[in-house]
Amino acid sequence: MEGETPLHTSERALQTGRLSRSVAGRLRMRYAIDRLMTGVIFACAASVVAILFFILAYIIIKGAPALNLDFFTNRPLPYGESGGGVAPAILGSLAMLGVASLIGVPVGIGSAIYLSEYGRGPFASLVRFTIDLIAGLPSIVVGVFVWALLVRQIIGQYNGLAGSVALAIIMVPIVSRTVEEVLRLVPDMLREAALALGVSRWKTILRVVLPTAKSGIITAVVLSTARAGGETAPLLLTALGNQFFSLDFSAPMAALPIQIYSYAVAPYDDWHTKAWGSALVLIIVIGVLSFLARQVVRGPTLGR
Amino acid sequence: MLVLLVIILFYDAKDAVLQYRLDFLTTTVWDPVFEKFGAAHYIYGTLMTSLVALLLAAPIALGAALFLAEYAPRWVREPISYLIEMLAVIPSIIYGLWGFFVLAPFMRAYVEPFLRDVIGPVPIVGSLFSGPILGKDLLVGGVILAIMILPTIAAISREVILAVPETQREGMIALGATKWEMIVKAVLPYTRTGILGAVMLGLARAFGETMAVTMVIGNSSNEISPSLFTPGYTMASAIANQFTEADKEIYFSAVVAVALVLLLVSVVVNSLGRVLIWRMARGPLGLRI
Amino acid sequence: MDSTGQSKFTSPMAEASEPVIPEDETTTGNGIPLGGLVAEDLSAWYGSFLAVRNVSMKIHPKAVTAIIGPSGCGKSTLVRCFNRMHEVTPGTRVTGRVTLDEEDIYGPEIDPVQVRRHIGMVFQKPNPFPMMSVYDNVAAGLKLEGVRNRALLDDVVEASLHRAALWDEVKDKLKVSGAALSGGQQQRLCIARALAVEPEVLLMDEPCSALDPVATSKIEDLIKELREKYTIVIVTHNMQQAGRVSDKTAFMMMAEDRAGELVEYSDTREMFTNPKDERTEAYITGRFG
After folding, report:
1. Of the candidates A7, A20, A31, which has its C-beta nearest C156's C-beta?
2. Distance between CA atoms of residues C196 and C225, nearest Å
């Protein structure tokens, strides 16, 4: 072995209480830094939570005054007339979400099935890549695309169908990912048992795999609806918004997020309050949906 | 099958925008000063606000992630993670509302004057905080974006940190490190790639945010000035705003061109982020030989 | 190699080295410590589960003490109490006394970080820091202490690598990542890393269980060399290894309530040829394990 390296001999000479805290100044500083950074980290976490509460508090405080029966049943009235509400917007949002789900959910489930059941090969990778891509698209870009396709070309004016399609595009990746995950959880044994019994691949999927994944599919639908329900930008470019009750999908249609925007940028305080009220409604609905989605994931899927 | 539909959608996107791309080229010939100038402004706005957002959000998100992964006892971890996720669920428009009525006035009344007084005099950096304070400007845009990307960065970082093997931590502690030293020297280097990926994904989200930014950024096309106090546009907010004003064919195509740029940028950054995270899953030696 | 791999009639002592047990003193006249570790009534809990019950033993300085016993008997837990690693896991508790040269390491004024500097540890699975080079790995402990002098670091790194019998193999690749070495080399790197901070005691928790026989024997030779300067406690599930390498052996076993107890502790030669407790004999002759 090489010769001894005299390391810290001067420190070693001080043998009394060499393990005690009060030894080196440097050690004290290391501990001070440790305590400081611990505090900083706690502060970071705390501030994030605080921001959340701050925002929620404002919404509740400012929005609550706006909520009354008129708010929920009436349509927006011109300034000067008292009352007026967001009923058309709520209706429009629901309608468009409904149509969007009809389009988006099957497509999403379809691609999830494809990916999980036939998931090898370059084509599958391409599909997965595309889904991820769409998931990452800014919602306004989706809006532009649908605008170019449906508003500009096919229909010629702002319309509710375009809005639904835009929402559907946003929903597809969420549905696909969530369902794919759930499908993966279905044990292979189930599939193999069915196939061994002579059931065709397709039927296996329909009758065996999907029902097992039912709760996951519900979660996917709920989550994607929650997300799509809050989208504004794509709707601005497609459905445009409407002051009147209308379920005509070939014409502009109201939606809650758009209504919030309209009320907010107007110069009237009263309308601002209505904006907060609509926001409150929106956040409550989205919050409840998200919460439910999480509960569903935890419960039935495991209880098999 | 149904999947092909997805692909066709993708192709359509390319088609529609390409068609306008040709128009865009002619646009620059017709309205060179206006359009070209404008687009640069939007890009600048997007970059500045996203930069501000990253600088503000990344450290805080990382701190929160470290809290969840290293410090919080099990029973605290779940609820707090959930609360942070809640931030992610709030729709953009509501952030916009809050930003418009709460954050912007607050910034105008307290924060921005403070910044101007304290940092303004400092050379170079100070020019970021100079000029008239209107309350709706790039800085506020950046702040609201920061809040919005916090949960994204925090959630991914948390996962990445939790994935560090316990043996690494033990090895550092056994050498005589304090907890913080262990984090800095053993945990964080291990997670470098993954956290970078998280930040990229946060950035991608920041690029695409529309409504929240639109409502607090001022939406005006002044000259590009170094100050963060100037109102501006991001690409996304520009598209949203200009769309309703567009009347001529050319105007439309220009706006769509901006959307194309935004699309490209967002795809690139998103992909980069995902690649980094995927790399992380393969082990920290992805960066070394 | 497991305990039943060899014929019951081959005493493990056939490969044993000469026991070297120094004087039963913990300090020499001029106060330079020798590294004697004494446990008194040491018990360790995971929450409400008692893992180790009332262990009392004297670890001789500058000797190799092996701790053997069937899986789950608390050997690792016991050893982790010696350098205060056990308490790093949340919810754990330790009672009793552990003294290093007559200083209670669990005393109220005592700093765990310092304790771990004086009592080092090598783990079952080699855990070099992959983001650091070989050089930086060895220097890690010193850098924690604030040593910056390049020349000093160079010297210590080289000396430590020599002591770990690794210098010749890595002297040309000091800048390579710590994880780029073979398993056996990685473990010797971890040993070098632990030695660099000049501990008095080196704890080794099944250091060879993840290694092939060649690497294992290299490390066993290393242990025999290290004995001259360091107090070594080695946990092993391999009795032959204990026989080959240690001067004293402690045998632990799980009681009915799953708490680990010290059954017998004596000179290695004694224990393997003439065990006093029938449980020890049963284990050694391979009747269970």
Report:
1. A7
2. 16
C194 contacts on B by Cβ (under 8 Å):
174-175
Judge whether B16 lies within some domain.
no
Instruction: Work out the mean pLDDT of chain A and round it to a whole number.
Output: 78
> Is C89 in CB contact (< 8 Å) with chain B?
no
Say if C154 is an interface residue toward chain A (CB within 8 Å).
no
The C-alpha angle with vertex A79 and arms to A74 and A82, in degrees rounded to 5, equals 50
* Residue C232 tokens, joined: 């070594």
- Which residues form the domain of C269? 35-130+200-284
- Mean pLDDT, consecutive 10-residue segments, chain A of 304 residues? 34 37 68 92 93 91 81 74 76 88 87 78 77 84 79 72 87 88 79 77 70 79 89 84 75 84 83 86 89 68 39
ipTM of the complex: 0.82
Task: Decide if B226 is inside a domain.
Answer: yes
Q: Which domains does chain A have, with CATH numbers?
A: 86-298 (1.10.3720.10)
Specify the DSSP element, H or E, that contains A289.
helix A269-298
In angstroms, the CA C264 to CA C250 distance is 6
Q: Using CB atoms within 10 Å of the CB of residue B132, give its burial: 0 to 12 exposed, 13 to 18 middle, 19+ buried.
A: exposed
Please give the tally of structural domains in chain C: 1
**pTM for the predicted model, two decimal places:** 0.82
Q: Tell me whether residues C111 and A20 touch, CB distance under 8 A.
A: yes
Query: What's the CATH code of the domain at C68?
Result: 3.40.50.300
C-alpha distances out from residue B192 to B187, B270, B279, B280, C21, Å = 9, 17, 11, 8, 48
Residue C76 located in a structural domain: yes
Q: Per residue in A218-253, pLDDT tens?
A: 888 888 998 888 888 888 888 777 777 777 777 788
Supply C127's token pair.
């855990």
- Asked, for residue C142, whether it belongs to a domain, the answer is no
- Could you tell me where the beta strands, DSSP code E, fall in chain C? 37-46, 49-59, 64-68, 92-100, 103-104, 119-122, 201-205, 231-235, 248-254, 260-267
Contact list, B62 vs chain A (CB under 8 Å):
44
Q: Examine residue C168 and state whether it is found in any structural domain, yes or no.
A: no
Terminal CA-CA length for chain A = 64
B24 within some domain = no
pLDDT tens, position by position, A112-148: 888 877 767 777 777 787 788 888 888 888 888 787 7
- Asked if C262 contacts C252 with a C-beta cutoff of 8 angstroms, the reply is yes
The number of domains in chain B is 1
**Residue C276 maps to a domain:** yes
Q: What angle do CA B72, B75, B80 make, to 5 degrees?
A: 65
Q: Which domain holds residue B253?
A: 36-287
List the one residue out of A133, A154, A137, A104 whose CA is nearest residue A233: A137
Let me know if residue B166 belongs to a domain. yes
Give the three-state DSSP class for B198.
helix
**CA B161, B148, A284 angle in degrees (round to 5)?**
110
Residues pairing with A256 in the sheet: none
Residues of C whose CB is below 8 A from B73? 90
C-alpha distances (whole Å) from A245 to each of A73, A74, A232, A251 are 11, 9, 19, 11
The CATH number assigned to the domain holding B79 equals 1.10.3720.10
Extract the tokens encoding B22. 């040709």
- Mutation target to probe the A interface, by most A beta carbons within 10 A, among C30, C37, C111 is C111
pLDDT digits (tens, 9 = 90+) for C135-165: 999 999 888 888 888 888 898 999 999 989 8
Specify whether the CB–CB gap between A159 and A95 falls below 8 A: no
